[in-house]
Design goal:
By secondary structure, the protein is of the alpha+beta class. It has 3 domains: about 220 residues, no CATH class; about 70 residues; about 230 residues, PPM-type phosphatase domain (Phosphatase 2c, domain 1, 4-Layer Sandwich), CATH 3.60.40.10. Helix content is about 45%, strand content about 20%. The chain is built from 14 helices and 16 strands. The strands form 3 sheets. It has a 6-stranded antiparallel beta sheet with strand order 3-2-1-6-5-4, sandwiched between helices. α2 packs antiparallel against α9 and α11 packs across α12. The protein is rod-shaped, with a radius of gyration of 58 Å.
Length: about 575
């Protein structure tokens, strides 16, 4: 399930997911985890210390008894018990295991001369050390059974010779293997043979034993028991008090931590957030206060203060940026308006009314100019020099945009002015080149094709100043490239002479001239439209109506480049010569 954004949350959800709420919950969770670990570890240390004390004291009693008592007498008494025990079958051992009276009768004759002395010594050590019980016993390891030999009980009601009990395997292992404590190294005593267990109906007991020797496979021990019930109660009380104390300390720590984090982190961040929201709310207000972050005065001495200072500087920079952007936008809008007006002026300067000479039946003309930018550097032109001569011009300036447009207007006026002085195409280009070279500090140039068509005869005299090859279609033929003689581009070098040539435009002939924006139109893969595709588009239909011809070429270019950006100005002019109609 996708998480909700803050704008999709209700008030309760926002409060729950706020930085303050998350911080409070995190502190509580981590505090509880630390408290639980502290309780567990503290109780473990305390209980271990208490139990270690009991086990050490009980174990030392058994060691003291071994040093004081006559080991040989203990082993003799144990040997008598073992003889009787081994003389019993497994079934008898199991049957007599819990029958106290029968066991007394069965082991009645095992008491030796030192039996009473052993019992008195055990009782003396027990009483002097506040022990609970003292006795000697053997282990039947195969059956997890303990068989008593002597007991400190003067009434012989607790553990008389031969009485048995079944013990847990863990208890026997603790006694047999012993456990090593860090105090053992201090006393150089080795492993401590002691264990703590719960015994009904007596409760918790600590039992420790010191081995005296072996009778056959049965180990003989001196055992002492101490009462652990008081220690368990102390542990319980300590745990309760420790939990209460730690809970109080944890509550205080949580409260202080939350207060400190709110003061140092959460509140400053909320103030920064509020200032940012106020700034956004005032963004569209021309009289807005640009000092939202400056008013905060956050002094935490850490990264949050650095953030506040950064936001303050960002606010100032944004204010300057918005002022500059407003000015730039206004300037850009003004430039756009001016460029739009320039585009309209440029379009008006070129022939744009078709048919241009409705009363002249000898010709049909159509031209288009589509700039790559707001204004372009291409232009076409046609004009009547006199009643029988039509001037035709198409040109391409080296630049684009505003510089190209200005240079284009100058070139257009010069060419038209030279043509109206009854100059030939070669002379028109020569004079235009001289005029441009005379003051061309930016070193721009223009390619131009100029033709003068004699309307009565169809004779076309033309000159080419570095422009694209014209394309011509004669009656009953196809459009084909006319590779005329080129001269140098206008404006490149002063003193150039241009040559002209003559074409015989029979009625039905169609002339197509264009700029390099047509063959060099580029698709998304940077492939050029090219001359072959241009000729294919021209010859895709037999219709020589000038407007239809230009539409076919334009459609071919559009289908080729598709969504690719137009790179260059695209200009075309088409003339259909019909001849003198009688």
């Amino acid at each position: 399930m996708a998480l909700k954004s803050i704008t999709e949350m209700n008030k309760a959800e926002r409060k729950r997911n706020s930085l303050k709420g998350k911080t409070y919950r995190s502190i509580i969770i981590y505090s509880l985890i630390i408290s639980f670990a502290a309780i567990t570890f503290g109780f473990y240390l305390f209980a271990s210390a208490v139990r270690r004390d009991y086990r050490t004291r009980t174990w030392q009693m058994s060691r003291t008894a071994v040093k004081v008592l006559d080991k040989e007498e203990i082993l003799r008494e144990a040997e008598e018990v073992v003889k009787v025990y081994k003389g019993m079958s497994a079934e008898e051992q199991l049957q007599l295991q819990d029958k106290h009276a029968d066991l007394l009768n069965r082991f009645a004759g095992v008491r030796g001369e030192g039996f009473d002395e052993i019992c008195r010594e055990l009782l003396s050590i027990q009483e002097s050390n506040n022990g609970k019980a003292a006795f000697t016993a053997i282990f039947d390891l195969a059956n997890n059974r303990r068989i008593f030999v002597t007991d400190s009980d003067p009434n012989e009601t607790f553990c008389p010779p031969g009485s048995m009990d079944v013990m847990e395997k863990r208890v026997i292992n603790d006694i047999m293997n012993g456990e090593q404590f860090f105090l053992d190294e201090l006393f150089e005593t080795g492993p401590m043979s002691s264990t703590i267990f719960k015994m009904e109906p007596y409760g918790y007991r600590c039992m420790a034993g010191t081995i005296v020797g072996f009778i056959d496979e049965y180990p003989v021990f001196v055992f002492f028991d101490t009462d652990m019930n008081r220690a368990v109660r102390i542990e319980t009380i300590f745990l309760i008090m420790y939990i209460i104390l730690l809970a109080a300390v944890t509550a205080v720590i949580i409260k202080l931590s939350v207060k400190n984090i709110n003061t140092m982190i959460v509140d400053p961040i909320n103030r920064l957030s509020d200032a940012a929201l106020d700034y956004i709310d005032d963004a569209n207000d021309s009289s807005r206060d640009e000092k939202h972050f400056d008013k905060l005065n956050i002094q935490t001495g850490d990264e949050i203060e650095n953030l506040s200072l950064s936001m303050k500087r960002m606010e100032e920079d944004l204010g300057h940026y918005i002022e500059n952007l407003t000015q730039v936008t206004a300037d850009r809008e003004r430039i756009r308006t001016e460029l739009t007006l320039a585009n309209r002026i440029q379009a008006a300067m070129m022939p744009h009314i078709f048919p241009p000479f409705p009363d002249r039946r000898e010709i049909e003309l159509y031209g288009i100019m589509d700039p790559a930018k707001e204004v372009g550097g291409d232009f076409y032109d046609f004009f009547l020099i006199d009643d029988d001569h039509l001037g035709l011009v198409i040109a391409d300036v080296s630049g684009k945009g505003v510089p190209g447009a200005l240079f284009m207007m100058i070139s257009k006026i010069i060419i038209q002015s030279c043509a109206m002085l009854d100059k030939s195409p070669a002379e028109i280009l020569t004079k235009t080149n001289e005029a441009i070279c005379s003051n061309n500090q930016e070193e721009m140039f223009v390619t131009a094709w100029v033709g003068i068509l004699e309307l009565s005869t169809g004779k076309l005299i033309a000159a080419n100043g570095g422009h694209e090859y014209p394309v011509i279609k004669y009656p009953n033929g196809e459009f084909e490239m006319l590779k005329d003689r080129h001269g140098l581009v206008l404006g490149a070098m002063d003193g150039m002479k241009y040559h002209e040539y003559e074409l015989d435009m029979k009625p039905g002939s169609c002339l197509f001239v264009y700029t390099d924006g047509v063959p060099e139109a580029t698709d998304a893969n940077e492939e050029l439209f090219g001359y072959k595709r241009m000729l294919a588009a021209l010859n895709s239909d037999l219709d020589t109506e000038p407007e239809s011809v230009l539409k076919r070429v334009r459609q071919g270019v559009d289908d080729f480049v598709l969504d690719a950006e137009q790179f260059d100005d695209l200009t075309m002019l088409c003339v259909l010569y019909k001849g003198t109609q009688k």
